[in-house]
Amino acid sequence: MKLKELLSVSGPVPLSDLTEAQLMELQTGLALLGYPVGDIDGLIGPRTRNAWAEYKTDVFPGNPELIGLESIGMLADQLAKLAETGTHDFTSKPGTIEAIKWECKTQGIGLDTQVAYVLATTQWETAQTFEPVRESFWRSEEWRRTHFHYYPYYGRGFVQLTWKTNYEKYSRILGLDLVADPDIAMRPNIALFVLVHGFKTGTFTGRKISDYIDRDRTDFINARRCINVTDKAETIANIAKKYLSRL
């Protein structure tokens, strides 16, 4: 993603001075980096203000109410780094594992305990394949059409991206029309982004991985609430422990 609109800011200026187009670009950039901006609508709400303040706190000291060329430049550099996915090898399980580790670090899920849990979840959700799967993958598409009332927005990916609202959300963030073509979510690079972004921001259930795993605690059992309440929580926790021992 290139920040064409924001780079015209002469700043530093208050967020309220940004145009709608500049705000939408800022919201999209922050969302791509895993900051919870809410809707990408070009409007300044509390979630957008908080997301920018969180970003400034993380990477650029200064007044969180202001935005200028230096902070925009840092944002642009991080987005450029995020786009460097061309070297990922999704043709093998080890290659996908390395891609997940890279994406976690890039999006700021950097603790070994967090990475281990994301890997364990991917292993479980993909039936050990480490390949994007469809919800009820052992069934036919006609079966899904008949049995899922939210069809065609059933689960797809390394974890299950489900419901039209979530397909709409990632369409706005990624600049791709997942609503018109939900199978875009099956592309490994897209599934990778959604997997990690969802863990960081709480897209799937409203719970973030940092709610359960941070520098002070490692709760591999309740971290399952990020995906599916506590279904198979102990099994996945044990898988996470094995990954952690190898990181």
From TrEMBL:
Top-level taxon of the source organism: Bacteria
One biological process term in Gene Ontology: chitin catabolic process
GO molecular function per UniProt: chitinase activity
Ranges of residues in domain Glycoside hydrolase family 19 catalytic: 140-188
Coiled coil start-end: none
N-terminal signal peptide: none
InterPro entries (alphabetical): Glyco_hydro_19_cat, Lysozyme-like_dom_sf, PGBD-like_sf
Protein name in UniProt: Glycoside hydrolase family 19 catalytic domain-containing protein
